[in-house]
Amino acid sequence: MSDKIQIFIDGGNFYHLTLKKMGLTETEFDFEAFAEHIAGDRQIVDSGKRYYVGTVREREGDPHSKNNMARQTTLFSSLIKNQWQLKTSKLREREEKLSIDSRVQDHESIRKLGIHEVRYTKNREKGIDVKLVVDLFIGALDDRYDTAVIISSDTDLVPAIDSIRMRFKKKIEYVGFSIEDPRDRKNDTKPTLSMISKTDIQRTFIESDLRAFVIPNLFTPKK
User: Where in the sequence is the domain holding 211, given as residue range(s)?
Assistant: First the structure.
């Protein structure tokens, strides 16, 4: 009998670590084909494809947020059509600030203009990691999977991974990525060492691997 698996994708984590650096949006990526590739000859159980993400809200007078919401709606429709389980949470806005210091290019010139810090609003997901952990435990308790495939480099998952492996004798497969950031090589994506050391199976995808799952009619080669 083939190995039973469930696939857990942290959508926000996947986007920022891979697709964004490749110049792609989520609607340009074939998650269904990717899941089938990950599974290989193993059996994806019923309700075994799970996607976790914060939901985008449209802000009045902000066309960017409207486009993001429309794109996410398209993504959700595609995932649901292919029997993915969607687990969402609200994105929370948080004000952050950047001090104008030696880390900023031309910081001296900027400070001479009287600008010493920049404040901006950033969206943060709340509770996504908790929902993923709960589903990992429920799947282990109910013996729904032999192997849980985690597509996330969030180290907050490590304690749950330890418990599931030790208490329930389930295997954990970590899917990591090695992707160059063309805008800042210091921000390149690399597999997380703690996830590698705490899991049973490790796989690393590079950009050319992921390009195979870009939806052809939407793909525009990078310049």
Answer: 4-93+125-218
